[in-house]
Specification:
The chain has about 200 residues and is mainly alpha-helical. It has 7 helices and no strands.
């Protein structure tokens, strides 16, 4: 049981680490268009991310997929940017209640990319055969899922407070928060070492 909590906490800290704020930025961009009444939809999106993340780690642990770390670090902010821009163009429209195919695909892609970005570290903390790493990997994934739910709840709570106390409408809140995410993520893309090659 102590091993479970160890890997669960690693997953938890992986998302909530202040130095790894790209993950939190993505969760902000993903959840700002929604409210508490949309909890099923947002939970589905968060779970899609975790599935992508876990799938990428499994593929990496078994050496089925390997991607250069520099490309992964470049693609992570790109997926955040796409999600935030999607919010700008759909804010206030009824499409949020329709299909989640596009945003679900981006979420899955982000999960895969982020999982590949974390795979080298994960392999280094778990020496041994690939089959020995599957259970710890699933425990780690549960920690990620729990941390993501915490972040999403915080965003939904902030949204509720801003709309209730400060009379912001949902569309304006979505636009402001998405613009904030874009403002943070664009310098990450510009400063990426990939441009210096």
């Amino acid at each position: 049981m102590s091993d479970f909590w160890m890997y669960f906490k690693i997953g938890l800290h992986h998302v909530l680490d202040i130095n790894g704020y790209d993950h939190v930025l993505f969760l902000i961009a993903l959840s700002v268009p929604y409210a508490f009444k949309d909890w099923k939809r947002i939970l589905l999106l968060v779970t899609i991310f975790t599935i992508g993340h876990t799938l990428a780690l499994i593929l990496s642990v078994f050496n089925i997929v390997t991607v250069k770390a520099s490309w992964v670090e470049f693609l992570i902010p790109i997926t955040i940017l796409i999600t935030a821009f999607f919010n700008l163009f759909t804010a206030g429209k009824s499409s949020k209640q329709e299909s989640i195919t596009f945003i679900g695909a981006v979420t899955l892609f982000f999960g895969i990319i982020h999982g590949l970005g974390f795979s080298n570290y994960f392999k280094s903390i778990l020496p041994g055969n690939p089959t020995d790493k599957v259970v710890p990997l699933l425990e780690f994934a549960l920690g990620i899922e729990a941390a993501q739910i915490v972040v999403v709840l915080m965003v939904l709570l902030l949204s509720f407070i801003v709309q209730t106390l400060f009379r912001f409408n949902k569309r304006d809140f979505t636009l402001v928060m998405s613009a904030f995410v874009i403002g943070v993520v664009v310098p990450m893309i510009i400063d990426n070492p990939i441009w210096k090659r």
